[in-house]
Design goal:
By secondary structure, this protein is α/β, with parallel strands linked by helices. It is built from eleven helices and six strands. It folds into two domains: 2-131, Rossmann fold; 141-215, Winged helix-like DNA-binding domain superfamily/Winged helix DNA-binding domain (Arc Repressor Mutant, subunit A). The chain has a six-stranded parallel sheet with strand order 2-1-3-4-5-6, with helices on both faces. Helix 6 packs antiparallel against helix 8, helix 8 (153-163) crosses helix 10 and helix 9 (168-175) crosses helix 10 (179-192). The radius of gyration is 18 Å and the shape is elongated.
Length: 219
C-alpha cells in the first residue's frame, strides 16, 4: 500500500511515517499543507492520502477542502482525514459526495497501529470508515429526531455499525445474529428513512447521511 501524508506538525508526520513503515506501508510523500499534498498526488498518485483537518494557512477546514479536491481530481485515491477533535459535521461533509474510499478518524486512534492499518486497508478497498467516537456522539444522544423515533432499538444498533462502515457480516458478528437478520434490518432501515432502491447510489451511505442530517443539533 502506498500512502501520502499531510500534517503541519513535523513530529506527528515523522511518527506516523515510522508507524506505517513498521506496517510495511510505503509513504510516497510527507508534506505540511494542502497545496503540497495536491502537488504530490498529481506527481505520484498513491493508493490513499492521510491528512489533518486543520492545516495552514487558516487552520480551520483546509484538510476537508483538500480531501474534496483530491476526490474530484483523483476519485481512485482513497482519503483518510484525521482530526484532534472529531466533529460529526466533518462526517457529513466527507460523505456528501459518496462514501466510497473515505474515512474520518480521531488522531488519538493513530497510536493504535492495528486500528490505523485496519482503517487504511478499508479505505483503500473503497469502504467507508467513520470514527466510532463520531457515531457514539450522534447515537447516544436522547431521542429527539424523526429518524430516531422511526427506528427500533435494534435498527439503531445496526445503523450505528453501518455508520462506522461495517459490512453486514461484521454487523452480524458484533450483534451475534445471522447475516440474513442483518439484511432484513438494513432493508427496514432503508424503508423507514425513505431511501429507495438505486443502481447508482450507495444506499448505506445515503441512510447514514439521512441520519446525520436529521441528528445534527441546531446552531
Amino acid at each position: 500500500m502506498r500512502v501520502a501524508l499531510a500534517d503541519d506538525s513535523v513530529l506527528f508526520r515523522d511518527g506516523l511515517r515510522l508507524l506505517l513503515h513498521g506496517a510495511a506501508v510505503e509513504v510516497t510523500a510527507s508534506v505540511r499543507n494542502g497545496d503540497d499534498l495536491l502537488a504530490a498526488v498529481a506527481a505520484d498518485p498513491p493508493d490513499l492520502v492521510v491528512l489533518d483537518v486543520r492545516m495552514p494557512p487558516t487552520f480551520t477546514d483546509e484538510g476537508l477542502a483538500v480531501a474534496e479536491e483530491i476526490r474530484r481530481r483523483r476519485p481512485e485515491v482513497g482519503v483518510l482525514v484525521l482530526s484532534a477533535h472529531v466533529d460529526p459535521s466533518y462526517a457529513v461533509r466527507l460523505l456528501a459526495h459518496g462514501g466510497e474510499g473515505v474515512g474520518l478518524l480521531s488522531k488519538d486512534k493513530v497510536a493504535d497501529l492495528a486500528t490505523l492499518v485496519d482503517a487504511l486497508d478499508r479505505v483503500a478497498r473503497g469502504e467507508t470508515v467513520i470514527d466510532a467516537e463520531v457515531v457514539a456522539h450522534l447515537f447516544d444522544r436522547p431521542a429527539r429526531s424523526r429518524a430516531q423515533t422511526r427506528l427500533s432499538a435494534r435498527e439503531r444498533q445496526v445503523l450505528t455499525l453501518m455508520a462506522q462502515g461495517r459490512a453486514n457480516v461484521a454487523i452480524a458478528a458484533a450483534l451475534h445474529v445471522s447475516e440474513r437478520t442483518v439484511e432484513t434490518h438494513v432493508a427496514t432501515i432503508f424503508d423507514k428513512l425513505g431511501i429507495p432502491p438505486s443502481r447508482s447510489d450507495n444506499r448505506r451511505v445515503l441512510a447514514v447521511l439521512a441520519w446525520l442530517h436529521e441528528e445534527q443539533p441546531p446552531p
